[in-house]
Amino acid sequence: MKRGIIAVIDYGMGNLRSVEKALKVAGGNAKVTSDPVYLKKADKIVLPGVGAFGEAMAELKRRQLDIPIKDALRQGKMFLGLCLGLQLLFEKSEEDPGVRGLSILKGKVKRFRSGMERGGEKLKVPHMGWNTIDKCSGVSAASAKMLKGVPSGSYMYFVHSYYVDPIDKRLSFTTTDYGSKFISSVCKDNICAFQFHPEKSQALGLKVLENFVRS
Questions:
Q1: Three-class SS of residue 25?
Q2: Of 74, 93, 108, 111, which is the most exposed, with the fewest CB atoms less than 10 Å away?
Q3: Which of 20, 59, 83, 127 is labelled catalytic?
C-alpha cells in the first residue's frame, strides 16, 4: 500500500537523519526538508528537535516554517512532535521566558526541580535514559491507535530537562514518573507528540512510528 509523503522538518536542530531513517524502516515515505512549499505538499509532518526552546522558535521563524506548520495543522494533516517538537506546540517555556511558542496548544513548559528523589534515590536533571510510560484513560479511539501494540509500562528513551504542563489535562496521552508524574505525551485530533524519542527506543519505539505511518 502506498504511503503518503512525510515531511521531517529541518530547522537546524535535532537528530533529523535518525528520525528519517527510523520512519523509513517503519514503512514511511519520509524526507528531511526546510522548504515551506514542501510542507504544503506533504501528507504528514514530523517536528523533531533537541536543543533550546527560544533558539528553536527563532530558527522556525527565520526559515519561515512556523506559519506553514500552523496552516498544516489547521488543515488536519497528521502531525508528530518529538521531544522539543512536543514542547514547541505550547505557548511558552521556563527555559526562555518571553519567547512565544507555536501556541497550538495552551499551556507552558516547566523545568524539573532540583532535589527530586524516587525511592530514596536522588534524581539528576536532565532526565536521561530509559523510563516507563503509562497510558492515560479516556483518550479517543483515534489517539489510542498511536500506541497500538505498545503496552502501558513500556520503556522509552528520554533526554530532557523540561516537561509540558497543558491547561487542558485531557490532552494527556501518557505519563511518566520522575520524582513525580509528568505528562510524557499528548494527543488531540490530528496532533500527537511525545517527550521521549521513538527513534531511539528500539522495537517499541519503532512500533510507535509504524502506527504514525499507518495513521
A1: helix
A2: 74
A3: 83
Burial class of residue 6 (count of CB atoms within 10 Å of its CB; 0-12, 13-18, 19+): buried
Q: Please pick, among 20, 59, 197, 210, the residue that the annotation labels catalytic.
A: 197
Q: Which domains does the chain have, with CATH numbers?
A: 5-214 (3.40.50.880)
Distance, CA of 28 to CA of 31 (rounded, Å): 9
Cβ neighbors of 40 (< 8 A, separation 6 or more) are 68, 71, 72
Instruction: Determine whether 127 is an active site residue.
Output: no
Q: What phi and psi, each to the nearest 5 degrees, are found at residue 19?
A: -65, -45
Q: How far is CA 185 from CA 24, 150, 205, in A?
A: 22, 14, 13
Are 14 and 50 in contact by the 8 Å Cβ rule? The answer is: yes
The CA distance from 161 to 174, in Å, is: 18
Q: Please confirm whether the linkage preceding 126 is cis (ω < 30° from 0).
A: yes
